[in-house]
Fold each of these.
Amino acid sequence: ASSKNNGIMLLLSALTGGFVYILVGAKAINGSIGIGNVLLTYSAVIMLIKALTDFAMTFTDLRNNNEHLLRYFDYVSLEEETGAADKSVDCNYAQVNIDNVSFKYPGSKNYALKNVSLFIENGQKVAIVGANGSGKTTLVKLICGLYDVTKGSIKINDTVVTARNRNEFGKWLSAVFQDFSLLALPIGNNISAGKLYDESKVWKALEKVGIREKIEKYPEKLEQSLFKDYDDDGVELSGGEAQKIAIARGIYKDAALIILDEPTAALDPFAEYEIFTKMNDLSQDKMTIFISHRLYSCKFCDKVIVMDGGEIVQVGTHDELVKIKGRYSEMWNAQAKHYIVNN
Ligand code: ADP
């Protein structure tokens, strides 16, 4: 619509301009106005046309921005989803029970997940592996209640997970997706994702992901802003540092279940190794479900889930799966060609 408006305005300006040129030209030929006046009129017309075009552009910008603003206002007027946790339930205990779940994305004909069943005990560390498009992200998104399952059910403890009751199971859950975003706010607030933060808890989380020392060197420490949008002294982070901050935010919540979608994709091999070897320390006795492309991370897990074509094709420990013929050992051998691994 905006380009249509622009087009109409441009056409009108061109027509007006053409009309005035012909009129003034005719009068000049006629001899009824002098050459000085012709030039004056032409430059006035050019200025008028430019002003009209600018007006049209500004008007279009206003209309476009208005659309964004409407979306923004819709968003800020949404009801707060994460209400205060119900103190009567134990927030430190979570079991996940996925019962014969199949799932199609809205508007999609194909199943992204087929007959997936899985039980995860409180405190277990679970890695989900598989080729691109095998359904890993879809599975963790369903556990987070970002979509409703098409068939079957997912429960965290006794609560059925649906897209509408995130308030009920949200207290057990903390998730760090790959497309996380950090805000142009102090580091402390980025970690707590709130107006207030508990300093010692924030430092602990930063320490676990191996970025405490770096933050301690900033003059404002936890009050140091990220990015320069609102603060000239704001700091810029590398991709890996941003990912560490995002993981620290996931840990800070102290949820019984922490979900990490490729937590180390942006980290260098040293930082990655550190995160995986410290996995137990990171989330302590909490259940951790993480998606990983680096199979050696599976060595630190209680359970490895291997997915292929939307189905779970193998479940076991790294040591069990690597010994038997199957998808896991195929992937392991393929990766081992590229890395020197101490088996
Ligand atoms: P993985 O995480 O293992 O790479 P995904 O769970 O992202 O795999 O994808 C599983 C299947 O679901 C793929 O076939 C993918 O194309 C499809 N898919 C993923 N996201 C969407 C979406 N938003 N809409 C439709 N199909 C999707």
Note: The chain has a mean pLDDT of 89.
Amino acid sequence: MTDSNTPVISSTGLFTPENSISNEELVASFNSYVDLHNRDNAEAIAAGNVEELQHSSVEFIEKASGIKSRFVLSKDPILDPETMCPRLPERPNEEISILAEIGVKAAKQALESAGRKPEDVDAVLCACSNLQRAYPAIAVEIQDALGMEDGFGFDMNVACSSATFGIQTAADYIRSGSAKSVLVINPEICSGHLNWRDRDSHFIFGDVATAILIEAKDIAPDKHWEIIGTKLKTQFSNNIRNNFGFLNRTHPESRDEDDKLFIQEGRKVFKEVVPMVANMIVEQAERFGLESSDLRRLWLHQANAGMNRLIAQRVLGHEANDDESPTVLDTYANTSSAGSIIAFHKHSEDLSDGDIGLICSFGAGYSAGTVFIRKNG
Ligand code: CO8
């Protein structure tokens, strides 16, 4: 491969919403909702016709997940026991959509840090879990908002693995010569598809947007991350689902509203995904002739601190410290596809020329992606 078809990560960008919800605030609001529900349904609960709801707990959330708070675009309505859902007013078609707006903010930061102008970019991939509409594509709206007159954009959804699938797609464009500079953007408004009344999952997700600029090495800034190799994997599972979709209105007899939001069998996901991902990383490292000691840092998908502890231990052969496997779960919670990119964005500057690391995603589908990278400069 020559420098003109070697893909590199030139830069990244991050947009973080202003508002954050702590576990304490979240649990207080959830427990008020539970108390109201149990009070209003006392007779039906006593008769066994309605289920009595249980309180959530800060201690459980932190122990089970490592999450301490999450950023959200709309805070007060989520915490209002009568609403428990973000409120993001509908915008006229003439205004930029909120998903594109936060994507553009992250994209501009990535472009600025690489010293790149929008017209230098050939393609925009909007890769995320929750797309706000069917069409026109959010990526095309972002392309327009950035002021790119040429090039193309499209949306892609591989749930939590959307970013790594986007990176491989962009890297393949560079390798084939069909593009020199590609923006992969991950706007995640997870608060919109989270059931804030579900005790098992109400604490899991937050909102954010990340952007990754993938370019050919010959045009990239001197300081960049060369992509050594990528691997994608999918394996069908019903353990994480969201049945929201355009055919919902064709079966109005459906009474189950909850499955039109995020639902999961968290325990099964944990048990099945940890070995799948750990094996995938080890196999891919071997493919590139890498020993575990060659891996300076793992930027793992940010879903659960326990999962990351087990995966990192299996890959590195010892318990990973924060420097080897940094977390952003405590402040950002699970932000789906953006999680490993936030970790990379915030914890990569200190590495040295030649250091090797791994960006890794895993989630619904199941889907998983590995991106091995080496720092240059
Ligand atoms: N407070 C107090 N107690 C609780 C709570 C709570 N909030 N919730 C559950 N409990 C209780 C349960 O009732 C249970 O009690 P008992 O033992 O008496 O039955 C006990 O705690 C243990 O419950 P679990 O077994 O469910 O708890 P776990 O230890 O398994 O932890 C987790 C739950 C944190 C969910 C954990 O299983 C986990 O993180 N699993 C992996 C999840 C994961 O990685 N999912 C990936 C999803 S992301 C993705 O790909 C989709 C992206 C789409 C984005 C959509 C945006 C909304």
Note: The first strand starts at residue 7 and ends at 15.
